[in-house]
Amino acid sequence: MTLGQVKETTCAATPCADKFLPYINDTCDKYGINTPARQLCFLAQVGHESAGLFYTEELASGDAYENRKDLGNTQPGDGRKYKGRGLIQITGRNNYKTIGDSFGVDFINNPTLLGAKNANLCSPDQLKYAAMSAGWFWNSRKLNDIADKIDIKKPIDQGDNLTHYIEMTKKINGGTNGLADRVNRFKIGAKFF
């Protein structure tokens, strides 16, 4: 993908898009995000989740995740330690372990490798893992299959396109939080694909 496609679809500032461009392209190659519909959906959703490729760590403290056994947070401090990180917020000890096993990286003892407070504070490794973790999440939820059902020549906010986009959003967010913004980013990006 080009810098313009990444910048416009994610609604990112040029410096953030430029920092993430090689890592996003590597992520898309690795996880088969390789058609215009897949790339457009991925960028629009990631753009919303990261506020334009800026935040790579959840703004909240993580206290809400303390003692959440469904996330594997069984040790004191796990909520803060394993709060959401990456371009799609990977959350919880279990997910950090699973993604670490997949990448061959110890995210349990090095959770901040998935992202710093924001892109301006990220090392190259943090930028890489923030992007790659989003691809891992995308792949684990089979979101390419949903993106393949979206016709980018038709409006995203109508009919089957909207139905599929809502389904995708629910798999990422658990609900439809930020749907209007996600749709808007898709519409902006569609001009560049």
TrEMBL record:
Alphabetical GO biological process terms: cell wall macromolecule catabolic process; chitin catabolic process
SUPFAM superfamilies: Lysozyme-like
InterPro entries the record matches: Cell_Wall_Dynamics_Protein (IPR052354), Glyco_hydro_19_cat (IPR000726), Lysozyme-like_dom_sf (IPR023346)
Keyword tags: Hydrolase
Keyword Nucleotide-binding set for record: no
All copies of domain Glycoside hydrolase family 19 catalytic, residue ranges: 45-117
Source domain of life: Bacteria
Protein name: Glycoside hydrolase family 19 protein
Gene source species: Flavisolibacter ginsenosidimutans
